[in-house]
Amino acid sequence: MGKVYSYMTRPIRSFNIENRTARILERKKPVPAPQYPSVEKQKELVDKLKPDFKETMLKKDPELHDRLKNVFVQSKDPEITPTSHRPLPQDRSHYSLDEISKSIVPIRGKCTVNQIVEFITKHQENKTEYSIERISQDYKIDKKTVENILQNFKLFHHLKEETPLMLDDKKKN
């Protein structure tokens, strides 16, 4: 509906547009916006105190301009004082996950990913020797949690390579 409305009102808006623009361009100054009464009072007060204030503001004062040329600003960055007195570490070498997991102090009921992978592989290799009870005692984890981990998380299994016969069977299908 907006498109139809703009299509219908376009001739009215563009009627006599050249003459209207010519009249606007012929004006010497645009009409200023109305001012607040408080601003008008301030202007009257300034006119009473200094009648030539407007002219002096618009003129370039050579004395002030020369003073401005003589001004030189010099700044210095503030000195940064360290908040703590401890020295920064000098060793910036990277650590592997094995080193990090060994340095972590074991917390009761928690283990690292490396420890979980380790007890899953041990349990898969020998389920009788590394039972749920033994794992829960060694790593200080709840038996139910160990059971859930062993049931829901599996490590990658090595698959046998496909024989050429198996490949031919797949091609036929």
Automatic annotation (TrEMBL):
> GO biological process: what's one of them?
mitochondrial respiratory chain complex I assembly
* UniProt xrefs under InterPro entries: NDUFAF4 (IPR009622)
Where are the annotated coiled coils located? none
Q: Which GO terms describe its cellular component?
A: mitochondrion
One Pfam family in the UniProt entry = UPF0240
Taxonomically, the superkingdom here is Eukaryota
Region: Disordered; residue ranges are 73-92
Q: What is this protein called?
A: Protein NDUFAF4 homolog
Q: Which organism is it from?
A: Frieseomelitta varia
